[in-house]
Amino acid sequence: MTTRPRLLLAAVAVVLTAASCSDTNDAATTSVSEPQVTAPTTSRATSTTTTAAPPATADAFAGLVVPEAEALGIGDDYFPTLGNPGYDVDHYTLDLVFQPDSITLDGIATIEATATADLVSINLDFTVLEAVQVQVDGEDAEWQSVEEDLVITPSSTIPAGEAFVIDVTYGGEPKQARSGAVPFGIGWQTVNDQNYVVAEPDAAHSWFPNNDHPLDKATYTFRLNVPDGTTAAANGTLVERITDLGREIFVWEMASPMASYLATVVIGDFDIVEDEAASAEAGIPIRHVLPVGKTVADYPGLERTGEMVRFLEEKFGPYPFDTYGIAVVDGFGAALENQTLSLFDSNLAESFFFEDVLVHELAHHWFGNSVSPGAWQDIWLNEGFASYAEWLWIEREASREFLEQEIALERDEFAGAGFPAPGEPPVFELFGPAVYRVGAMTLHALRLTVGDESFFELLTEHATRFANGAARTADFIAVAEEVAGLELDALFDSWLYDRAVPEFPAG
Ligand SMILES: [Zn+2]
């Protein structure tokens, strides 16, 4: 995500963030753990749900209240009820009917999953919209809402290792959801005649039921039914358009694993614009979702997308997905790296720093989207890396000397400014300036310490080793030490966990 491209704006935003979120985040901010290097954590939770609801009885009926049901989580310290244990989702099919006039969303989420523990009950994250019917393997199942979980009790226990399918029929009026991490409503956005989804970090479950944590990625099919003349886009590749009785169904496939927070739809008066020159340069289809009548030429810098893909491939290794592009929307005020379809505010897309932000959101496709954070505390692995990609672009456009001067100035601005350490920001500063800029400085300190050759080799190794998965800070440190052949704990400890911004090592 990019919400604050410049420090001055960033400082103002942080003050506003702190003011607006402090009331609701006391518990979260006091639970931040001490600095520590944890063991690599990339495996999925496997605990059983023995304390959850008992099995259904013969006379059970859908909606039966089972008092023992409780909200569960996948073990994220920052968002204790996000994600759920006991299963691994393989694929989501979201078959949705959207009515722009009434702003209603109705449909079926089909969730294909595999049990990783014996499942007496299954928790999905789900809020804002209402479940109407739940089936497991084609049979009606009991379900109830507990906090932001949908607790489902299948007719019999699902043994560990067994595949199962959940169909949740649901609907209602999609709305913004409140997050402790950002000072504005996220989730479903309706602005003028446009509808789109901004879900990072914790709002994916406000528009479809899912296992809402990057530790459980899955592939997706979106079947978006909208009135004829309206365009409906989503992540991935448009594989089919079906017209039917004044409606049109847009079918999009996201063939690579995707974290739920990166799933999006963009619905309204848009054109799907193919950029053939950029596609040829990037070696993948580049298509954008632009307001009707707009072209690539209306957004100076956008024509360099293919060049940016190739540039970042030189630095980080092959682009991890099979298509790319951006969607330009009104009223967002920021940019977000939704997988293969980064979302840009229309004013941002016409601003002088658009090109830098294009590089930032594209870079997230290596760091954030393919290699996702194993815990939200480690958000610097997304934002520090994407911010560093902006610096690499500046270095290419200007010079290394110019970049060094810029970074030195920025380091001095941050030193003494009292920002939290980027390795353990409070929840309400997950997207604060220190995570972005001091996170990027951490990588620069690493580069100065290990030298350019090892630095780019270790970035590529990290992107490759954890591709289509998740990694924690300790995983990255281990890769860095392995590639560089150096002990680097002290460097990372001081840059990530000390509030005082260190001096750069001599290069
Ligand atoms: Zn970002």
Quickly give the structural class: alpha+beta
CATH superfamily of the largest domain: tricorn interacting facor f3 domain
CATH class of the largest domain: Mainly Beta
Distance between the termini: 30 Å
Describe the structure.
The protein is an alpha+beta fold and 507 residues long. It has 3 domains: 7-11 and 373-497, Neutral Protease, domain 2, CATH 1.10.390; 48-177 and 201-260, tricorn interacting facor f3 domain (Immunoglobulin-like), CATH 2.60.40; 269-351 and 358-364, Neutral Protease, domain 2 (Orthogonal Bundle), CATH 1.10.390. Helices cover 27% and strands 27% of the residues. It contains 11 helices and 23 strands. It has helices at 7-21, 26-30, 276-282, 305-316, 354-363, 380-397, 400-414, 433-450, 452-465, 473-484, 489-497, and strands at 87-99, 104-115, 122-125, 130-136, 139-140, 142-146, 149-153, 163-172, 176-177, 186-191, 194-198, 218-227, 231-234, 237-244, 247-258, 265-268, 270-274, 287-291, 326-329, 335-336, 342-345, 371-373, 469-471. The strands form 6 sheets. Strands 5-4-8-2-1-12-15-14 form an 8-stranded mixed sheet, with no helix packed on it. Strand 10 (186-191) and strand 11 (194-198) form a beta hairpin. Helix 5 packs across helix 6 (380-397), helix 7 (400-414) packs across helix 8 and helix 8 runs antiparallel to helix 11 (489-497). The longest helix has 18 residues, at 380-397. The chain starts with 6 loop residues before the first helix and ends in a 10-residue tail after the last helix. The model is unreliable at 4-67 (pLDDT under 50). The site of zinc ion has 7 residues, from helix 6.
